[in-house]
Amino acid sequence: MQKHKNIPCMQIPDKYLISVMDVLGMKRAILDSSSGGLMYMTELFKSAQCQSRDALEVALRDLSPKKEFKTIMNIYNESSFTSFSDTFVIALNISKILRDNPSIIVPCIEVFLARVKLAAYQLYSHGFPIRGRIEIGDVVIESNFIFGKPFVNALIKAECLDFTGVTVSDEVVELFSNISSPIMQTIKSCRLVVPLKDGSETNAYCMDWMDCHTNSQFRDNKFTQQLYDKFGMYSKTITRDVHRKIINTERIVHEIITQTSLQKDKVVIANADAYVDHLKAKEDAALRDSSTIGTTRRRKLQ
Q: What is the pTM of this model?
């Protein structure tokens, strides 16, 4: 069969980590906005992206070795970040990193996860709660399009959620659960029963994108009011559907707090047990040394 001359060769897909975020309330905000309002939202999203990068640069200085910092930041800058309508996409080319510089794969994954967290929180803090999903698989990303099963899966899974938050596929957690990533370890500890829009529930790993376990605002009644404020920032009324999402979000956040606290307690207990074992070993060694010294002294006296 003769190939058509006008059809270019298709790019071979690379394996990507990909996050899709569905921004709640954005369609309504756009429809209700004047041209000035649209310009404001455009600048707001640009600002949110810049703030995420600035915060990430600070975090990376502690996370990665100095000699790798520039390389990782270059990968961060080159990683895909795009939006269309009310959807934001962040993608990291895993195949490219493994081909070019496999030694930095772990910090690069941490960069990707941190970027998702920061982008989600920046959107939320400006009154745009999100529903997100992270998947992995073969994707083709060009300057003007994105195509692949993980992207479609992430989009569908995100839009099915009935709360504001980010879930992570089982495959992502299975592949990277053993890496030295604080964010991934938190995700691994938060496998929860999450609500879906059709009224059903499913098990899913959840990202602590608001740092609930370290933020005191999520431990008091002010958090409920904050959710209503964020969901209602660009809407005149709180509908029944929105009210349900707020209640569901509050439940998921408290479950994340519970699970991360349990995980922290396990680490503390493990560290305490290790410290006790260390002290016991040290004491046993001291007793053996004293016994040896005593035996030597008795021999000399004899």
A: 0.78
